[in-house]
Amino acid sequence: MISKLLRCGRRHLHTIVSRDVIKPSSPTASHLKTYHLSLFDQISVNAYMPVVAFYQSSSINQTSHDKTVQLKNSLSHTLNQYYPFAGMLAKAGPSYVECNDEGVEFIEACNDDPLSDFLQRSKHEDLDQLFPDDLIWYKSNHKGHNDENETTSPLSIQVNHFSCGGVAVAVSLTHKIGDASSLLNFIKHWATVTRSSSGEHHDLSHINPHFLSYQSRNVNLPKDLPDVSCISKGDYVTRSFVFPNSKINGLKAKITSMTMESEEPIMDPTRAEALTWLIHKCAVAAASKTDSGVFKPTGVGQVMSIRNNLVEPLPETSIGNLFLFMEIPTRNESELAPNMIIGELKKRKKAFRGITNAETALGMVAEMCSDHSAMLEMRKRLDDYYMYTVINRFPTYGIDFGWGKPIKVTVGGVLKNATIMMDTPNGDGIDALVSLEREEMKIIQEDPELLAFC
C-alpha cells in the first residue's frame, strides 16, 4: 500500500489500497482491432486530461467495497462500446490505437478525512493524488516517453473513498483519442450504466458513443514538430476564481459601454468571451509587473470545438477531437481592448460556424499541416500565448452514478498560462481555473479589477 501526506492544516493519509485492470466484458470484434486516429487526434497535445467528480455519502446502503465492485463491473460493460479506450497506443507520435482489450488500470484509494474537510482545506495541487499515477496532463509516469516502441493505455481511473462515505471518481484520458467532450460523455455513459446495474432501467441508446471517422488523408506531419507546451516547467500554480452570473452581467455591460465609441461595439458578449478578455488583461498586467513593468507581448489562444457548430452537426456523443484553433495576438496595450479581443473571437467563431461538415474542416487542417514551416512557426508562437478552454456548456453536474449529483466537478493538474472555464455546481456562474507562475498569481489574486467580478 502507498500512503501520501496532504499539505493541509492537519496531516492525514491518502492511501492506495488496490490496483486492478478492467477489461471489456466481451472481446472486441476482429474488424475493430485497429482504430485509426484522425488528423485532428494526431495534432492534439500529447497529454492526459484529468477530470474528477466528488460525491457526498448517499442514503443508499453501500459499503466502499460494494461501490468499487459495482463501478468495476459497469466499467467492464461500458468498455465494450468504448473499446479503443481499453487498447494501447504509442507514447510518441501515435497514429492508431491497437484495440487489443488490454484493459484500463483501476486504482482504489482511501482518505482518512471526511470529504467536506478535504474540499475545504485542500489547495488545487492536493487534487493530484486523486488521479492515477501522474496522468495529470503529463504524458505518462513511465520512462521512455520518446521511445516509439513504448506504448501506453488511453484511459486510467482512480476511485477515492473518504471517511464519511463520500467518493471522488477521477478519470484521465489521453487527448490523442478525444477531447473534453469525449471524456465527459464517457463518464456520463459509465455513470448511467452503473445506475442501471443497481436495478434502475435506463435507455442507453441516446448516449451510445459515435466514433468520428474520416476519409484517410496522406498528410506527413513534420517529425520535428514540437508539442504545444501546455505542461508547466516553471513554478506554476492553479487557483480557482468563481464569477457569479450577476457579476458577469455587470462585466458584459461594462464591455458594451467601453466599446460603444468603436466602429464595432460589442453588444452581446458571451460569458466566456467577457471572462477571457478580463482574465487575459489582468494576466498580462501581472506578467508585466513581474518584469519591471515592461509590457509583455503575447496573445490569446483558444481551441474551439466545432462538432455542434457545423452546418451538418454531429451527434453530441461524438468521440474524438474535432476543433479549429483561434489565435489573437496582443502585441501592445491597444490590442488588449475588449473590442480587439472579443470582436476577433466573434469573427472567427462566425466563420467556423459556416463550415459544412467534418470532412470540410479536416481538409482545412490538412492544408495547414502540409505547410510544415507555418506549423512550426505557429507552435513557437503558442509557447508564449495564454490558452483559454471553455467547457461550461456540458451538463457536468448531471453525472450520477447512483449516489446523486456531484457536489463538485473540476480539472486537476497545472498547465502553463492556461484558463479552463467550467460551470459552478448550482449553474449560477463560471468557475475559472487559472494557471500562472507563482509570483504572477500573487498579483492577480489581489487585482481589484478581477476581484470586482468574483
Report strand order across the widest sheet.
1-2-7-9-10-4-17
The helix-strand sequence is: EEEHEHEEEHEEEHEEHHEEEHHHEEEEHH
Helix content: 25-40%
**Could you say which structural class the secondary elements and strand pairing correspond to?**
alpha+beta
**Cα distance spanning the termini:** 41 Å
Radius of gyration: 22 Å
Named CATH topology of the largest domain: Chloramphenicol Acetyltransferase
Overview of this structure, please?
The structure is a single chain. The chain is an alpha+beta fold and 454 residues long. It folds into 2 domains: 2-211, Chloramphenicol acetyltransferase-like domain (Chloramphenicol Acetyltransferase); 236-451, Chloramphenicol acetyltransferase-like domain (Chloramphenicol Acetyltransferase, 2-Layer Sandwich), CATH 3.30.559.10. The protein has 11 helices and 19 strands. The chain has helices spanning 39-42, 64-78, 115-121, 180-197, 245-259, 271-290, 338-352, 358-370, 372-382, 438-444, 448-451; strands spanning 2-5, 13-22, 34-36, 48-55, 89-90, 96-98, 104-111, 151-152, 155-162, 167-174, 210-211, 236-244, 298-305, 318-319, 323-330, 386-390, 408-411, 418-423, 429-437. The strands form 5 sheets. Strands 1-2-7-9-10-4-17 form a 7-stranded mixed sheet. Strand 9 and strand 10 (167-174) form a beta hairpin. The longest helix has 20 residues, at 271-290. The chain is globular. It starts with a strand and ends with a helix.
